[in-house]
Design a protein that fits this description.
Number of domains: 1
CATH class: Mainly Beta
Distance between the termini: 10 Å
Radius of gyration: 18 Å
Order of helices and strands: HEEEEEEHHEEEEEEEE
Structural class: mainly beta
Number of helices: 3
Strand content: over 45%
Number of strands: 14
Strand order of the largest sheet: 7-8-9-10-11-12-13-1-2-3-4-5-6-14
Length: 250
């Protein structure tokens, strides 16, 4: 089951700013800037395909992702014939996983990610990464420079750096490089296949390349998410998560 848990977590495992942002300071000079068109929503649903490869384990499967803004991320993995093998529920402070193959149930704090993968995970960063929104909120300390077809938005916090490449035309993040200052672990996220989603633009293909140090040495993982049908909804969406009595708590 460790491999299954790792798969679910690494999809969303991003480096956190530990919620200790610098306070905004007055700026005496005008700096170049660019507005990022971010997706606004109450409920999000995607029918997608995920491909995972860490050099040792490979995995490809259809999956469903549902999000209630700032509250819940729900994932169902169905490798074949619509048979669900894993269901996960992620909240702002916990990860719950049902392993239907081994009839087991896992309840993990988000500190599990930090302790095992050297990253301090936050819910909002996972949510933003899935939607293609800014991983960190804007700050007056951020800097922007223009280069070719892109605006490079640099963000630095006490424990991490983020370099965003924003399309001048799309006003969307097309790639982001996240580096943890202490561990030097880094993550590159690329968004392609931009197309309309309601009144927004959405990258229907997300590629994540993670380089991180573990107790087994340096690891490199590649995760690809191809969104095939995506909906933004205003009405309430279901997030079923029932654990059968016969399942063992791990």
């Amino acid at each position: 089951m460790n491999r299954v848990v790792f798969l679910l977590i690494v999809i969303f495992a991003l480096f956190s700013c530990r919620r200790t942002f610098h306070k905004s300071q007055p700026v005496s000079i005008e700096r170049p800037s660019i507005k990022v068109n971010e997706i606004e929503f109450e409920y999000f649903q995607s029918k997608a395909k995920i491909d995972f490869d860490d050099g040792t384990n490979q995995f490809s499967s259809p999956m469903t992702i549902r999000i209630r803004k700032d509250s819940v991320i729900w994932i169902s993995v169905n490798p074949a014939l619509g048979i669900e093998v894993v269901r996960a529920l992620i909240t702002p402070d916990s990860v719950f996983v049902i392993d239907k193959i081994h009839k087991a149930y896992y309840a993990l704090g988000l500190n599990y990610v930090k302790n095992n993968f050297g990253v301090d995970l936050t819910f909002k960063m996972m949510q933003s990464a899935l939607l293609g929104n800014l991983i960190l909120p804007n700050s007056s300390l951020d800097s922007t420079e223009f280069e070719g077809d892109y605006a490079k938005l640099r963000q630095s916090r006490s424990d991490m750096d983020v370099l965003n490449y924003i399309g001048k035309t799309s006003k969307k993040i097309e790639s982001a490089i996240v580096t943890d200052k202490k561990t030097k672990n880094n993550l590159t996220i690329k968004y392609t296949d931009m197309a309309p989603l309601d009144s927004f633009q959405f990258g229907y293909t997300t590629q994540v390349i993670a380089n991180y140090l573990t107790n087994k040495g340096m690891m490199k993982s590649n995760v690809g998410i191809n969104h095939q049908r995506v909906d933004l909804k205003d009405k309430q969406m279901r997030f079923p998560f029932n654990v059968k009595n016969k399942y063992d708590r791990k």
